Each structure stands twice: as C-alpha cells, then as structure tokens.
C-alpha cells in the first residue's frame, strides 16, 4: 500500500466519522425536513444543481483558462454538498433541521441529479461523457447518506450510548483529518501553485462569488437559512468531483489539483461572506422571530 493510498483511507475514515457525529446529534425529522417542504427543496436543488452547473459551463466556455480548471468547475458544480458542510452551516446560524435536511436531500438526489446534469453538459459541449451513476451513488451513499442515517438511527434508539460516545467520535474525526490534510497539501502544492498565476484563480473566485449571491437570495424565506443555502451552493464534495473528473477526463492530471485549489478559495470566500452576513443576520433574526410570533 502506497502513502497516497493510506492518506486517502484515513481521509475517508475522517469524513465518515464527521458525518456520523452529525447524525448522532440529529433526528429522523431533521433528515426528512426538506422532503416535506417541496417548495424549499426545489429552490435549493434548482439553485445548486441547475443554475450553478450553468454558471460553471458559461465560465468554462467564455474564459480563456486551462482545460483542467474548466473540468474542475463543471464537476464541482454537479457534485453534492460535502460531508463537513453541516459544521460550517451551524456556525453560520442555520437551523439544524434545514441543515441536516439539505445534506440528506443533496446526497439522496445526487444519484439522479448528477447523471442528468452531465447529460445536459454532454449535449452542450458535444462530447461523450461517462455519468458514472454507480460510482456517484456509492460515494454519496458511503460517505454522506449511510453514516448520517446510521448516526440518526443510533441517536433515536440508543440515546444513552450516544451521549457517551459522541464527543469521542467528534475528536477522532478531527484528529484523522489533521493527520491526512498536511500530506495532501504537500503533495499537490506545486501543481496547485501552477494554476494560481494563469487566470484560474479569478475564474474560481468568480464561481464562488456568483454562487454565494445566488444561494443567499434563493434562501430568503428564512433569514437564518440564507447563509446555509449560500454556503451549500459553493461547497461541493471533492471526492465525488475528483471521481467524475477522473472517469471522464483521465488525461487531465491537473484537474485534481484544480479541485483542491477551489477548496482553498471556498474556505476564503466562505469566511469573507460570513464576516459580512453576520451583522445583517443578527439584525434580521429578531424581525423574523417577531413575524413568526405574530403569525
């Protein structure tokens, strides 16, 4: 087993533990929250999985950027929310049922949404693409949906056990993430840097900025969830994005570095957005609560 293989195994274990720990603090009602609210579900999925792939495709076709970056933008746009997204969303002040419901819905619908999105993209660029439905289903199911649902079920049927283990699970997931993130950055730092100076950085920043604006406005019904949908719109599962890129464009080795470069941009864009939105969010919350009380 190579060092890279070992790092990937540790990373997958960290991701699964992270989602499992989130499930331990959730309920079945949280997981099904958006499925019971089809209008909110449609707004979220339409923004994340219809508009954003269109934005990515437009940037890829209009901008003079490396092919690997064009591929990265497209595959990121069709991927579901990442497993660590809920922690970021909770820090943004989102309601727990909406956050968990969005992650569950995104993972469950990715098996249908991704092949459809890739088919539309195939027709636009006039190139055969492998939609990889089975691989997408396996990745989304094993890294997001299954550990989340197992955690929720355990919390429901064995709350006493959950209270004893939830902190240890959270600490373990964080420790594993730290163990593998530094070697990954060391391995890809040079190819990532090669993409910084050729316009790639600007195109990815534009993709993130557009996504934040679209997600923020699409989530206007509940001020608490505006930041949640905004962050979900630009936060995508890197493992699924890399898998789609590898299956369809195996000769584009820089695509993986481009996906990881976007993750760095995503962290920066999210931090800047949250710094801007928190004062507005605090102003909106009392007003929203008053409206709900009046209703």
Strand content range: under 5%
What is the tally of helical segments?
12
CATH architecture: Up-down Bundle
Q: List the uncertain runs.
A: 285-295
What's the story with the biggest beta sheet?
none
Approximate shape? globular
Oligomer: single chain
User: What is the CATH topology classification name?
Assistant: Na+/H+ antiporter like fold
Supply the CATH class.
Mainly Alpha
List the helices and strands and how they pair.
Blueprint lengths: L2 H22 L3 H4 L6 H25 L4 H12 L6 H7 L4 H30 L7 H25 L1 H36 L5 H19 L7 H9 L3 H11 L5 H41 L1
Helix pairs in contact: 1-7, 1-8, 3-4, 3-6, 3-9, 3-10, 4-11, 4-12, 5-6, 5-10, 6-7, 7-8, 7-11, 8-12, 9-10, 9-12, 11-12
How does this model look, in words?
The relative contact order is 0.17. By secondary structure, the chain is mostly helical. It has one domain: Up-down Bundle (Na+/H+ antiporter like fold), CATH 1.20.1530. Helices cover 82% and strands 0% of the residues. Helix 7 runs antiparallel to helix 11 and helix 8 packs across helix 12. It is built from 12 helices and no strands.
Task: List descriptors.
disordered C terminus, Na+/H+ antiporter like fold, mainly alpha, 295 residues
Characterize this entry briefly:
This protein is mainly alpha-helical and 295 residues long. It is built from twelve helices and no strands.
């Amino acid at each position: 087993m190579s060092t890279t293989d070992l790092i990937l195994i540790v990373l997958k274990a960290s991701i699964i533990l992270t989602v499992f720990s989130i499930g331990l603090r959730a309920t079945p009602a949280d997981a099904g929250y958006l499925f019971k609210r089809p209008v909110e579900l449609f707004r979220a999925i339409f923004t994340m999985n219809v508009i954003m792939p269109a934005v990515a495709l437009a940037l890829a076709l209009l901008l003079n950027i490396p092919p690997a970056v064009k591929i990265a933008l497209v595959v990121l746009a069709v991927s579901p929310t990442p497993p660590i997204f809920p922690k970021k969303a909770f820090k943004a002040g989102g309601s727990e049922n909406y956050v968990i419901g969005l992650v569950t819905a995104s993972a469950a619908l990715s098996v249908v949404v991704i092949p459809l999105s890739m088919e539309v993209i195939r027709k636009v660029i006039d190139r055969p693409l492998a939609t990889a439905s089975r691989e997408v289903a396996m990745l989304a199911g094993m890294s997001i949906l299954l550990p989340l649902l197992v955690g929720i079920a355990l919390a429901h049927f064995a709350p006493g056990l959950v209270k004893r283990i939830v902190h240890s699970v959270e600490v373990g997931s964080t420790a594993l993430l730290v163990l593998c993130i530094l070697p990954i950055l060391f391995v890809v730092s040079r190819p990532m840097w090669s993409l910084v100076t050729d316009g790639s950085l600007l195109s990815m920043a534009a993709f993130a900025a557009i996504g934040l604006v679209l997600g923020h406005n699409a989530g206007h019904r509940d001020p608490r969830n505006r930041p949640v949908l905004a962050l979900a719109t630009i936060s995508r599962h890197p493992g699924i994005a890399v898998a789609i890129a590898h299956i369809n464009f195996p000769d584009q080795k820089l695509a993986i570095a481009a996906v990881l470069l976007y993750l760095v941009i995503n962290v920066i864009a999210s931090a800047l957005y949250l710094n801007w939105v928190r004062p507005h969010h605090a102003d909106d919350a009392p007003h929203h609560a008053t409206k709900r009380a009046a209703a």
